[in-house]
């Protein structure tokens, strides 16, 4: 062994604001010469400096567009005075198309002139260019007032969100600020639903359904995924992607009368193409039961009155549960090995095969218009949530009771349904039982005046809440290998997603992980459990990361280089602003319109001569080549 000598970072690299001073410090350091710990600090400093430089470039580019030697002061007053040729010098300087330059200037002008706080965060290195672009792009259809209000609401926490998380947060806030706009936008786009087909360069065809209703679309995706998983479990040797495609075509293709799902699956398996790529995983039969990180849900371990294998509510199928080891055993097969428990569970627990909706109970009762969330699909407006809840009567109804700050107090279930809600599921054997999660504060639950149709549901919830004593903490439970169903449900409701800080995998498709392993004396209790997706679960066992849970629901990850990453407890109920009086007047007109034109786009036959050819999707005048 020999002692490695590393160069030291200049003092202040981690704390100096971006600009000339930080640039001078960074230029002194060769990243190849510093320690593994310091190179992480160095990368973070360079990221701040890069954001600062890109913000200053955007400022300079905007000034180039505004420059006019014939005006007083040598510049135009604003973008409203730009002429046709104002951007051409930037085109020549940057060697870019008019379209690219227009996008660059739009982002710069919005961030600098319309939302100066956004540019200030960018210039200070608090926000990187990609997140600034998201803030501009995903509010482009909003009115100036609406866009500014949405961006200012998300700005304090934007740096801690992934790009997809930032998009979802912007959608939540924009919908909360103007629920009527969100409902009109969805409904008008839904009216433009259509099917389009495009022949590819290789001779295959891409068949797409556009602007489909979200409820029907999500249920259709779940149905295709369920049938594909069943075909895989029945012995189809192909990749899941190709099996999904075969199921999709079989569902659309004319077939003999009387075919049920079993017949369709058998047909897909029997007609598997031996020339297709071979699959990498072999799941066990969809719907098989057994212990796992979701809880050992044998009849003895279930909560009183919760549906078990033999006592499901009429018309409600039991929820399948996929076994996965809490931590990989030393001699266990890798998760991607055929036949491994992790492989089978990973496929069975596919998010596509299940439906999950999260919404406030007050929203379902019509007391507010707060948006809900359909994990995997994004934010849904209140009228959609109320309508879709009626289609999820056979789902597992879970109720998160929170404090006034949105943090979880109790995770309840109810088998009661409001009067007038149908209880017969549309399909008898889903791969994963849908989940409808309702949120309500303790104060609201105690004081709420419910409609008559909801009296039974609220009475049941109040009784269960009075009986709630917290997640189980008995000595027998503490020594279990896997948590029982009620404790697993509490952990997943509390954590919301995988507990690795940037990961957004829904907690429903994660392992329940022991922060301190059972083999090292860790107890199967809430303060020692967390939701972790398969990849991030394995960080602890295979990649040298360490995990601590200093308080229930707060997770601190330490990397092999010694850096720590904090994942604080997340509120169950997101902070959504109240609607602005009168709305914001944002645009609700769809970008595209349904027509009677042929389904083919650039297809093998022309449009009928009685109609002019469809207008190209790109704006006229662009010099970007068509792709």
TrEMBL record:
<feature type="region of interest" description="Disordered">
    <location>
        <begin position="557"/>
        <end position="627"/>
    </location>
</feature>
<dbReference type="InterPro" id="IPR003615">
    <property type="entry name" value="HNH_nuc"/>
</dbReference>
<feature type="compositionally biased region" description="Pro residues">
    <location>
        <begin position="570"/>
        <end position="580"/>
    </location>
</feature>
<feature type="domain" description="HNH nuclease">
    <location>
        <begin position="486"/>
        <end position="538"/>
    </location>
</feature>
<protein>
    <recommendedName>
        <fullName>HNH nuclease domain-containing protein</fullName>
    </recommendedName>
</protein>
<feature type="compositionally biased region" description="Pro residues">
    <location>
        <begin position="605"/>
        <end position="615"/>
    </location>
</feature>
<feature type="compositionally biased region" description="Acidic residues">
    <location>
        <begin position="318"/>
        <end position="337"/>
    </location>
</feature>
<feature type="region of interest" description="Disordered">
    <location>
        <begin position="274"/>
        <end position="349"/>
    </location>
</feature>
């Amino acid at each position: 062994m020999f002692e490695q000598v590393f160069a030291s970072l200049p003092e202040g690299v981690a704390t100096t604001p971006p600009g000339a001073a930080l640039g001078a410090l960074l230029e002194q350091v060769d990243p190849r010469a510093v320690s593994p710990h310091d190179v992480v600090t160095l990368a973070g400093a360079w990221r701040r400096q890069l954001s600062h430089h890109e913000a200053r470039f955007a400022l300079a580019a905007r000034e180039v567009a505004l420059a006019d030697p014939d005006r007083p002061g040598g510049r135009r007053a604003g973008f409203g005075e730009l002429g046709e040729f104002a951007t051409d010098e930037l085109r020549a300087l940057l060697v870019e198309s008019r379209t690219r330059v227009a996008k660059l200037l739009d982002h710069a002008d919005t961030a600098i002139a319309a939302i100066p706080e956004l540019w200030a965060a960018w210039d200070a290195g608090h926000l990187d260019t990609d997140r600034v672009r998201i803030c501009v792009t995903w509010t482009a259809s909003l009115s100036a007032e609406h866009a500014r209000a949405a961006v200012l609401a998300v700005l304090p926490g934007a740096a801690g969100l992934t790009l997809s998380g930032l998009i979802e947060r912007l959608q939540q806030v924009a919908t909360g600020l103007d629920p009527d706009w969100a409902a009109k936008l969805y409904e008008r786009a839904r009216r433009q639903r259509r099917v389009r087909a495009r022949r590819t360069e290789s001779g295959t065809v891409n068949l797409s359904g556009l602007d489909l209703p979200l409820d029907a679309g999500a249920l259709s995706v779940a149905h295709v995924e369920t049938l594909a998983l069943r075909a895989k479990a029945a012995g189809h040797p192909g990749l899941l992607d190709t099996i999904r495609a075969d199921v999709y075509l079989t569902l659309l293709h004319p077939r003999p009368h009387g075919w049920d799902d079993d017949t369709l699956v058998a047909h897909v398996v029997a007609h598997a193409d031996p020339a297709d790529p071979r699959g990498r995983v072999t799941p066990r039969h969809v719907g098989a039961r057994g212990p796992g990180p979701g809880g050992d849900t044998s009849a003895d371990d279930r909560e009183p009155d919760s549906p078990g294998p033999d006592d499901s509510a009429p018309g409600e199928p039991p929820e399948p549960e996929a076994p996965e080891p809490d931590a990989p055993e030393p001699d266990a097969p890798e998760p991607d090995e055929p036949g491994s428990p992790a492989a089978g569970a990973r496929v069975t627990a596919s998010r596509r095969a299940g439906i999950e909706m999260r919404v406030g109970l007050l929203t379902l009762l019509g007391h507010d218009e707060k948006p809900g969330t359909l994990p995997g699909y994004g934010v849904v407006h209140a009228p959609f949530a109320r309508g879709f809840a009626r289609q999820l009567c056979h789902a597992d109804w879970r109720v998160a009771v929170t404090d006034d700050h949105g943090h979880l107090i109790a995770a309840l279930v109810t088998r009661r349904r409001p009067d007038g809600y149908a209880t017969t599921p549309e399909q008898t054997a889903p791969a994963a039982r849908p989940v409808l999660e309702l949120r309500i504060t303790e104060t609201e639950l105690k004081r709420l005046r419910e409609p008559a149709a909801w009296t039974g549901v609220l009475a049941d919830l109040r009784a269960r809440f009075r009986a709630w004593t917290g997640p189980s903490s008995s000595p027998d439970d503490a020594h279990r290998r896997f948590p029982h169903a009620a404790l697993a449900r509490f952990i997943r409701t509390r954590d919301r997603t995988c507990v690795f800080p940037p990961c957004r995998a829904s907690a429903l498709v994660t392992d329940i992980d022991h922060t301190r392993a059972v083999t090292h004396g860790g107890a199967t209790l809430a303060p020692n459990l967390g939701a972790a997706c398969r990849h991030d679960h394995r960080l602890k066992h295979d990649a040298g990361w360490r995990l601590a849970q200093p308080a229930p629901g707060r997770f601190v990850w330490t990397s092999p280089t010694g850096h720590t990453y904090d994942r604080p407890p997340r509120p169950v109920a997101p902070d959504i602003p109240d609607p602005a009086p009168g709305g914001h007047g944002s645009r609700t007109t769809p970008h595209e319109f349904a027509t009677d034109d042929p389904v083919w786009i650039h297809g093998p036959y022309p449009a009928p001569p009685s109609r002019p050819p469809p207008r190209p999707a790109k704006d006229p005048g662009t010099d970007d080549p068509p792709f």
